[in-house]
Amino acid sequence: MFGFLKKKLGEVISRFSEKAREEPEEEAKKEQVKVIEKKAEEKPLPKPVQAARKADEVKAEVKPREKEKEEKKDAKEEIREEPKKPKSAQVGSSRLCNPAEAGFAAADWAQSSQRLGGFFERITSAVTEAVTTTKISETRFEELFRDLEITLLENNVAVEAIDKIKADLKGSLVEKPLQRGKIEETIRKTLRGSVEDLFTSGYDLKEKVKEIAAEKKPAKLMFVGINGSGKTTTIAKMAKMLQDSKLKVAIAASDTFRAAAIHQLQEHADKLGVKLIKHDYGADPAAVAFDAIKYAEAHGIDAVLIDTAGRLHSNVNLMAEMEKVARVAKPDMKIFVGEAITGNDCVEQARKFNEAIGIDGIILAKADVDEKGGAAISVSYVTKKPIFYLGTGQGYNDLAPFSAEAVVESLGLAA
Ligand SMILES: Nc1nc2c(ncn2[C@@H]2O[C@H](COP(=O)(O)OP(=O)(O)O)[C@@H](O)[C@H]2O)c(=O)[nH]1
Ligand SMILES: [Mg+2]
């Protein structure tokens, strides 16, 4: 699942972080100079310099007295000892004659050298920091993001979802001191959080059906979506799942638009041992749903699953028909079944059905053959509705509870 996007995403993230690490040389140099200047300004240079100057003055005063002893002492020794001993014991030794002056010089030398030492330490750490960290400007981010944007678009991720991912990445990357070695980790972590945020948190649909049925039988579930998206197959899978939970199920054959649709459903119903309520081909879908509910009420059925048509060529009529079925059947839940592999089309259909009849959640069929994952990533974000299940094959048990963590893992973004 999502193998193609996973591979692409991995490549793009590596490219992104590599390019972010090798920021243009000029920019890097400018940045280093800025950091060094800033660090140097933190404690102004004058103090240690002044201290050093004072020490020089003291030394100048002391010098004439020392001259008296010059004959006795070796000049070389003096050069060796005098300027380079900041330790107070040595600077304040009897050789400097005046203990008061010598004491002043010693304290100042110690202070000044300490300050100078601190100053160099700051500069060294600033240089290290400038070399090991980097900053990404907004312009550079826009350049770097383009590659990822194209990959997401190519993999059917909706524009709204891309915008969210972009805003999140921008927030954690732009104008932030980033450790060069950790850029990829930061990108992955942010992407992971972003993708997780794209999903409206859901609930266990099977448990919900049980709750509804416990309160008032039957729970009524209406399935909508375009032709071929997987509605009928998904209804058969759901019927099996509910039966496995000891619930009694009936199905309404409200796709009366094609004779084949009724036959297909009859076959599933026979295999599963489920009651199918059907009218003739071309009958009123709302009337079929109504009859199924009446049948369920009369026979202690826990859940009625209403199949519907999904002809594409007359969207307006289709939506009007869905509205009518919904008005008559008053379903507890309206579930959009989308075909994961159709990507953006699937997301657009979900948006339209949601606008027309207000869906409660989504089942994405054919996730097993979807290498891109764009619909799975986007459909919940665009509709603000949860994804309940993923269809993972053509067998009755191929209905997997949806999990955001599983998607994140399928995309290679897991921690
Ligand atoms: N691989 C795979 N095929 C599926 C899945 N769900 C449905 N199909 C197939 O998709 C085709 C259309 O499904 P159908 O239920 O008739 O769609 P409907 O027109 O919306 O009722 C059928 O051949 C199904 O077997 C799924 O999760 N995975
Ligand atoms: Mg069908």
What is the element layout, followed by pairings?
Blueprint: H1 3-21, H2 25-42, H3 46-69, H4 75-81, H5 88-91, H6 99-132, E1 133-134, H7 138-154, H8 159-173, E2 178-179, H9 183-197, H10 205-215, E3 219-224, H11 231-244, E4 249-254, H12 259-272, E5 275-277, H13 285-299, E6 303-308, H14 315-329, E7 333-339, H15 344-357, E8 361-365, H16 374-383, E9 387-391, E10 399-401, H17 404-410
Parallel strand pairs: 3-6, 3-7, 4-5, 4-6, 7-8, 8-9
Antiparallel strand pairs: 1-2, 9-10
Helix pairs in contact: 1-7, 1-9, 2-6, 3-6, 7-8, 8-9, 11-12, 13-14, 15-16
Residues 231-232, 255, 261, 307 line the site of magnesium ion (MG).
How is this structure best described in words?
- With 415 residues, this protein is of the alpha/beta class.
- The chain folds into three domains: 3-22 and 136-197, Up-down Bundle (Four Helix Bundle (Hemerythrin (Met), subunit A)); 38-133; 205-410, Rossmann fold.
- Helices cover 61% and strands 11% of the residues.
- It contains 17 helices and ten strands.
- The strands form two sheets. The chain has an eight-stranded mixed sheet, sandwiched between helices.
- The radius of gyration is 38 Å and the shape is elongated.
Order of helices and strands: HHHHHHEHHEHHEHEHEHEHEHEHEEH
Poorly predicted runs of 5 or more residues = 81-104
Strand order of the largest sheet: 5-4-6-3-7-8-9-10
Assembly type: single chain
| Strand percentage | 5-15%
| Through-space gap between termini | 18 Å
What shape does the CA trace take? elongated
What's the CATH architecture name of the largest domain? 3-Layer(aba) Sandwich
Provide the gyration radius in Å: 38 Å
Specify the CATH homologous superfamily of the largest domain. P-loop containing nucleotide triphosphate hydrolases
| Most strands sheet | 8 strands, mixed
